[in-house]
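Bench notes, afternoon.
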Amino acid sequence: MNILNCKNLTLENVTINAPSESLNTDGIHIGRSMGVHITGADIQTEDDCVSLGDGSQQINIEKVTCGPGHGISVGSLGRVKTWPASPSGVASDLHFEDIVMNNVGTPILIDQEFAHMVNANKRFPRMSRLAM
């Protein structure tokens, strides 16, 4: 499901189930949208359950069951990750509250040198300020 250029949208009790052979299939992608509220969703994908793209603001995701999948990701920055040599951007005021995770390998991942290519260039500096 692709949510683009929306304002004040609520999705309640949505079920998304992508077959296991559908690789790189996000459940819900949100881009350039404001005031999106997702609640009570059940999402099973082989990629991000929910991904937030550029220009997304005031997004509230709650009571979502995700799995299998990569969880909630910050867009193509995904899982709070950046690509080497990517244009500058800001991911700010992110709150993770009252989360229950079972059998999760990496609960919260921040990767500033994300690269799935074997010969990726990782010579770029890290530019994060992280407070936990």
